[in-house]
Structure formats: structure tokens, C-alpha cells
Amino acid sequence: MIQCFVKNDYKSIFENNHIPKLLHVCKAEQDDNLFPRIMHMHHDMVEVVLIKAGSGTYTIGNRKYETRKGDILIYNKGVLHDERSNPKATISTYVCGFTDLKIRGLERNFLIGNDVRPIIHSGDYFSTIENIFEIMYSEIFSNKKGVEETGNYLLLSLITILIRLVDLSKEEMTEEEFELGERIKKYIDDNFLNKLSIKSLSKDLGISQYYLIHSFKKKTGYSPMQYIINRKIGEAQNLLINTNFSVAKIAAMIGHDNPNYFNLIFTKTIGMSPGKYRKHLISDFSSK
């Protein structure tokens, strides 16, 4: 028999021993990830994604990342992200969201610093992390007495292991000078619900249309107009998921006066109409 002892004088990674709160946990199989989740952000929540199987392309902040089985994606609060599976290798994931996180030395609801790469590979910890997610999901899904507390303690284990992985594989982003592409992106992020065009962007930012398109695509991998469309569709998905607003009202809220055109763009981007997308999510949720 080998007996292991726990140190009693350890220092918690959580500031003032404050315990974060689990908000949701999701198990998404390959069929659930057929439809992309376009650019969106969470204003007061951290989200962690484990790639169980398959591969995909994820945009986090300003960068695109190719993901594979075992990758862990970390979205701090307020970080824009975009999720798309590879049609030839559809993706399966676990996702959890939590709030009231305060790690020593970091902002509230930040799991990693801004200078740290938001994707890490689980390596030898894959089975451990997958098991934590599976138990967490099974507990919350069971809706039995005490599952909230069980879920939160499992969350603490998950966060602690993730911090260890970040420390082991820490890869700081190269420091870049503030550049034109970033300036364009910030302007679009602040104004994407308004009517924007290449001409209006060029005029408002005081740069040529060619230089605007070239600089922005070099920075983000998207043309300005494609980025604007993705931001609008991402916001529409949020509204379809979280409100009972009509499709026509949502179209108007994201700057489309013509609901038919909104339906066309949404269907082209997501693979189904807004109405079907909402029904798909409702029926999928009620069946689980």
C-alpha cells in the first residue's frame, strides 16, 4: 500500500478562497455541431471547451485556430469567438460555463492572461479531464438533490488542472504593435449593428478601400464585410436562443430591414433558416 499525504499549508489559486459558480455544462455530439456557432461573446462568464473527437476551425479574439481531439479552448469574459466544425471530421465537445472566477493576479472571470494562447492540448490529462466533464454533465443532467454542489466542486478540480496545464505549456503570444487591422476591427465591433459598407468604413476611418480590405484580412483572415455578416449572425443566434422575439424583430435589431434577406443570409451561413434553427434548438433541448 502506498499512502499519499496532502499538504495542509498550500496556497489556493483562488483569490480569498472565493469559489466560482458553475452556470451550465453541455455535451455536444457530432450531429449537434453540424451548425456553426457564429461570432459571439459572453459578457460575464468564462467558457471552457474540450474537443472530444473530430476537428474544426475556431476563431478566438483576432486569430483562427485549427483544433483536434484533446484540445481545450478557453474563452475569457468578453472574448469574441466563432466555432465551426470540419464537415469531413465532425466534432464532439464538452462545454462548461461559469462565473465569479477570481484567479490570483487575473481580472474577474479570466482563466488565462491576455498574453497566453487560448488553446492548450490536454495530452496525458485528456482522460482525466474528459471524466470530470462526464461526471459533471451526468450529475447536472440527473437533477438530483445536491447536484449543484457536486457540479461546483468538480468545476474546482477542472479549473485547477487547467491552470496546471497552462503553466506546463505556456506559450505567450508575440507582442505586436497596435496596427491598422486592429483599429478597423475595434471600429466594426463597436458599430456592427449599424449599416456599414466598405465605402462608409473607408470614409469613417480615413483610409483607402484597398488598404482597409488588405489590412483587415491580414489581421483576421476575414474580409471586412464577411466579418460584419458573421457578427450580425452571431448576435441573431444569441437572440434566437435567449429571447422570444420574432424573426422579423431580430432581423431589425441586427440592422436588416428586409426579413427575407436576413433569412437568406442566415440560411446561407448556418445551413437552416432562423425559424428552423430556433425549433431545432428547442426540440433538441427538450429531448435531453
TrEMBL record:
Gene3D superfamilies, A to Z: Homeodomain-like, Jelly Rolls
Top-level lineage group: Bacteria
Pfam (any one): HTH_18
SMART domains in alphabetical order: HTH_ARAC
Keyword annotations of the record: DNA-binding, Transcription, Transcription regulation
A molecular function (GO) term: sequence-specific DNA binding
UniProt key word DNA-binding: yes
InterPro entries: AraC-bd (IPR003313), Homeodomain-like_sf (IPR009057), HTH-like (IPR037923), HTH_AraC (IPR018060), RmlC-like_jellyroll (IPR014710)
Span of domain HTH araC/xylS-type: 182-280
Name of protein: AraC protein arabinose-binding/dimerization
Originating species: Pelosinus fermentans B4
